[in-house]
Backbone:
């Protein structure tokens, strides 16, 4: 067994401290600038000139940011619910049933995952235009569902495939129907994978900018990521409102991650060994 020296422990502590500074300093800068009443003239000062909530009041009173956050929440929750449900059923289908072109379907799902998002903007824009879903939160939700499904299907397929068929057969012998077996047996076993894919879907929908900016023309239907763009002027930027909006955009993702982090960690660990 290798014994850690004093110099090694000090080096490890310094490395951890440097890593924390490197990762947390941008967050500190964002929050402190949001609270700085003189944010636009702060420059490179490490400490803010004071503490004030005027930038948060400004983005709600004059920036309509409450409406943008509501739109993002609607789109994010819709994406989680629908993509999670569709991905779970699709994963069960490709993992449990044998049908023609099954392998081809899996390969096509994987290919879609590899296509750059920027290459899909124009084709999806034309599709949404033909379906009259441009400038619509429903249309934007449909796009995010499509973007989230390939990753979710591939991830959940691994979880479903590793559930022993004997467990399902035992449920059938006890008199369970397929819906009862699915709800009471299969769903609890793949729940960690469902949480992991839900986090991915929520972050995709919440932070996405290009599709939301391209598809939405009505200012009242902007998502938070697009609404933040209004504080960037042609010749200047209102850094206080920008950082206040960025702080508010970060909070829901942080809260959602804290709520599901236990199941997310177990889901990712299980997926790593079960894949």
Residues:
């Amino acid at each position: 067994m290798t014994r850690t020296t004093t110099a090694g422990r000090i080096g490890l502590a310094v490395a951890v401290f440097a890593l924390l500074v490197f990762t947390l300093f941008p967050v500190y800068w964002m929050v402190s600038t949001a609270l700085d009443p003189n944010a636009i003239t702060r420059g490179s000062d490490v400490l803010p000139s004071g503490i004030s909530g005027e930038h948060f009041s400004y983005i709600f009173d004059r920036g309509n940011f409450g409406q943008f956050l509501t739109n993002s929440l609607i789109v994010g929750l819709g994406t989680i619910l629908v993509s999670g449900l569709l991905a779970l059923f699709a994963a069960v289908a490709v993992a449990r049933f044998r049908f023609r072109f099954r392998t081809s379907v899996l390969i096509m799902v994987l290919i879609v995952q590899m296509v750059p998002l920027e290459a899909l903007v124009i084709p999806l824009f034309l599709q949404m235009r033909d379906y009259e879903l441009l400038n619509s939160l429903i249309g934007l939700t449909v796009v995010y569902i499509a973007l989230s499904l390939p990753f979710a299907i591939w991830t959940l397929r691994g979880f479903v495939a590793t559930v022993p068929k004997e467990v399902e057969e035992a449920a059938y012998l006890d008199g369970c129907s397929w819906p009862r077996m699915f709800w009471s047996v299969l769903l609890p076993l793949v729940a960690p994978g469902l949480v992991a894919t839900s986090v991915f879907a929520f972050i995709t929908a919440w932070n996405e900018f290009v599709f939301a900016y391209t598809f939405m023309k009505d200012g009242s239907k902007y998502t938070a990521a697009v609404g933040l763009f209004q504080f960037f002027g042609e010749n200047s930027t209102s850094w206080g409102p920008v950082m206040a909006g960025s702080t508010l955009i970060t909070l829901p993702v942080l809260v959602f991650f804290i709520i599901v982090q236990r199941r997310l960690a177990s889901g990712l660990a299980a997926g790593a060994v079960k894949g």
In short: The chain is about 75% helix and 0% strand. The CA atoms of residues 174 and 181 lie 10 Å apart. The first helix runs from residue 6 to 35. Residues 271-275 have pLDDT under 50 and may be disordered.
